[in-house]
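Severity: low
Component: inverse-folding endpoint
Summary: output formatting inconsistent between runs
Steps to reproduce: submit the following structure tokens with default settings.
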């Protein structure tokens, strides 16, 4: 009789755990079934689902390969939920292994949380240290804070096609090449902040081929910097065909008058092939007459080609 009772209780427990694993929404936190984000991601069904994170710090390294995963921070503000790890290229064995979070599953969404790599706060040796590496297509990040120093955000594509990524009302900080990669990414009303460093390079886009539909577009963004941030640039071309557009953005930081810089001055000639452009900048750092001659100032008509709906639509007409 005792064996039967134990078997019945075990069956109930197994059923409950199965229900949790197959639930549409999983909860993560000290008082939740899942204590780590990684365990919740693993428990999601193959087709993805929603994960709600209770306020707190989650010190872990997370990989999300399943499609249609949605992360939601349940705090009052993005600072209340922090996913953080501390790896640098020096300690992890390369830039692309240094991530705190790596997302390749298409249809990814994240809202109201922070993703951080705090390597630079723990190790004095300079090193690339990625907070978020994302190659997912149809990705949407809203009110997400991305914190790091060198190479904070790797916004990149898969090999077969460009990955479309939409960042809305996000805060992104760093110094050298801190938004880099070859994604087709649109930054909508984002706050871009340079932290203290001798050189602050906001972007290092890496479009490789003329037929690759890849670019970074910043629309209505705010650009600021720490008082100890020295040379501040829109960016440089990681690959010669890099494409970056800043539209209707307010530049509060003391941007270098030329705006754009050669990858390695005196050694490379990427500015001859890159597409760097600007439209209707405002603020103390707006200075169209002093910009690098090979960069462009767009007309209102030319700027419409880079509007969100046109830029991100693709053959499937995606409208995030």
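Observed output (run 2 of 3):
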């Amino acid at each position: 009789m005792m064996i039967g009772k134990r078997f019945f209780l075990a069956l109930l427990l197994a059923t409950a755990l199965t229900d949790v694993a197959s639930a549409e929404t999983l909860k993560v936190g000290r008082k939740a079934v899942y204590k780590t984000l990684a365990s919740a991601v693993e428990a999601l069904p193959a087709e993805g689902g929603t994960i709600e994170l209770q306020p707190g710090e989650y010190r872990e390294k997370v990989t999300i390969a399943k499609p249609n995963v949605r992360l939601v921070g349940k705090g009052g503000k993005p600072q209340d939920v922090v996913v953080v790890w501390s790896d640098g290229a020096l300690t992890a064995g390369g830039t692309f292994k240094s991530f705190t979070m790596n997302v390749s599953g298409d249809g990814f969404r994240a809202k109201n949380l922070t993703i951080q790599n705090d390597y630079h706060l723990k190790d004095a040796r300079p090193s690339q240290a990625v907070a978020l590496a994302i190659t997912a297509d149809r990705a949407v990040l809203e009110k997400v804070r991305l914190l790091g120093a060198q190479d904070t955000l790797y916004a990149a594509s898969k090999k077969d096609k460009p990955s479309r990524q939409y960042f809305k009302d996000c805060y992104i900080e760093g110094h050298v090449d801190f938004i880099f990669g070859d994604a087709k990414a649109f930054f909508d009303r984002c706050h871009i902040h340079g932290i203290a460093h001798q050189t602050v390079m906001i972007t290092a886009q890496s479009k490789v081929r003329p037929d690759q539909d890849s670019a970074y577009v910043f629309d209505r963004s705010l650009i600021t910097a720490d008082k100890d941030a020295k040379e501040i640039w829109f960016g440089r071309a990681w690959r010669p065909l890099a494409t970056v557009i800043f539209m209707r953005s307010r530049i509060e930081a003391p941007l270098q008058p030329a705006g754009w810089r050669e990858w390695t001055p005196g050694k490379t000639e990427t500015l001859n092939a890159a597409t760097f452009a600007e439209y209707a900048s405002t603020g103390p750092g707006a200075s169209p007459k002093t910009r690098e001659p090979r960069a462009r100032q767009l007309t209102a008509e030319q700027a419409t080609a880079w509007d969100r709906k046109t830029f991100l639509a693709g053959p499937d007409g995606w409208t995030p």
